[in-house]
Amino acid sequence: MQKQTKCGKIIILNGAPRSGKSSIVKAIQNSFDGIWINIGVDTYMQMIPNDLQPGIGLRPGGERPDLEAAIVSMYQAMYQSIRVHSTLGLNVVVDVGHHDSYSTSLELLPICANIIKELPVLLVGIYCPIDTIMERRINTWQNKYEEDGTIPPNVKRWQEAVHKVGIYDLQIDTSVYSPNEAALFIQFELNDLSKPSAINRIANLSQS
Fold it and tell me: Which residues make up each annotated binding site for ATP?
């Protein structure tokens, strides 16, 4: 009889663009024991054709209802892949920006949560003040403030929509803590995944 493989752990980092998720992913891959596979929005967007861009990276606001059916399938496929990696004993770190601000509610996070709910999952909210995010966007993408000095509407929408579910196992402010410090907090929480997880609670939202 084949020996049953112990499921790999899953870390989901949920936050707005430029909140620091990618840097935390690198810190986890460089310092945690075992194999850690990165599956997330950036890697997934690299796999899809131009006519489906930005795919699961579609920002809040309901701007592309023509993509939404495909986005539901993409999210389901990505989380099924996460599930397979875990069941084969591989650890997975996922960097995403979950929101439900589409042309109509898609309830993607509860759908995805149901795919992985019985696995060892840590859901981490990655927070960052909007002024710090703007500074990072300017440095990375040469984005600008509006002509009147206000925050661009699309940046505001990300900040308002990405954490609306409000249910996490751990929350980290990346304007206060470095990627390595964030990884240490996450590692501490990974030591005890026996308690009911945020993912299980979110999965139950679709059944209530």
Answer: 15-22
